[in-house]
TrEMBL record:
Transcription recorded as keyword: yes
Modified residues (4-aspartylphosphate): D52
DNA-binding region: 125-224
Domain OmpR/PhoB-type: 125-224
Keywords from the UniProt entry: DNA-binding, Phosphoprotein, Transcription, Transcription regulation
Protein name: Response regulator transcription factor
Source taxon at top rank: Bacteria
Pfam assignment, any one: Trans_reg_C
Biological source species: Saccharothrix hoggarensis
Gene3D superfamilies: 3.40.50.2300, 6.10.250.690, Winged helix-like DNA-binding domain superfamily/Winged helix DNA-binding domain
Domain Response regulatory: 3-116
Length: 226
């Protein structure tokens, strides 16, 4: 049985979604505000969160960022807007997937199952060691010369993805699809900004890379510093 925290301020929608999820055999705790959700998520015990963005006490994206500060539970956000900028904002804030309102119970069930499949934990591999850089997936920790790097969730995900493919050129489209759920043709600066931040924390610049190399027109690769 999957334990779901449902965060929805509209009592009608909250009741309908609760019925749909319990009908699928899930245990559901419905709450109506961001503060209630943060209190419950801090206590732990949930497998997934369904988060409505139109909450009365806090912007949903802000609530999402606060959740990400205390846990890694998968979050599906529900939004009334389907424009690309809104979707990018939510994914960058830490959402694992999104639903555009109104949605059917079948659509919700399919999204929930897909997110849970991706979130199922497998035995963690040994830490990746690339020169003096160590990336530990189990601890979600990266160290350079023994010093822990202060990485955001997405920065670590990006570094870990490249570390698992050490020396291989990873296409830009592959990174956007697998880390941001964005189509390969997407041309905003999301990936470039995260790469820039990651390079800064690795103590390098694009013009003088040590670990993170750009293969112009193709993609990016992580290799040991010479």
């Amino acid at each position: 049985m999957v334990s779901v925290l449902l965060v929805e301020d509209d009592p009608v929608v909250r009741s309908a979604v609760t019925r749909a999820l319990t009908g699928l055999g899930h245990a559901v705790l419905p709450v109506g505000t961001a503060l209630e959700a943060l209190r419950e998520i801090t206590g732990g015990g949930f497998d997934l969160v369904v988060l409505d963005l139109g909450l009365p006490d806090m912007d949903g994206a802000d609530a999402l960022r606060m959740m990400r500060g205390v846990c890694d539970v998968p979050v599906i956000v529900a939004t009334a807007r389907d424009d690309e900028s809104e979707i990018v904002r939510l994914l960058n804030a830490g959402a694992d997937d999104y639903l555009v309102k109104p949605f059917s119970s079948e659509h919700l069930a399919a999204r929930l199952s897909a997110v849970l499949r991706r979130a199922r934990k497998e035995p963690a591999p040994a830490p990746f060691r690339i020169g003096r850089l160590t990336v530990d997936l189990d601890r979600r920790e990266a160290r350079l010369d023994g010093r822990e790097l202060n990485l955001t969730r997405k920065e670590f995900d990006l570094l870990a993805y490249l570390a698992a493919r050490e020396g291989k050129v990873v296409p830009r489209a592959e990174l956007l699809a697998n880390l941001w759920n964005l189509p390969g043709r997407h041309d905003d600066q999301t990936l470039d900004v995260h790469l820039s931040w990651l390079r800064r924390k690795l103590g390098e610049r694009a013009a003088q890379p040590r670990y993170l190399h750009t293969v112009r027109g193709v993609g990016f690769k992580l290799t040991a510093a010479e």
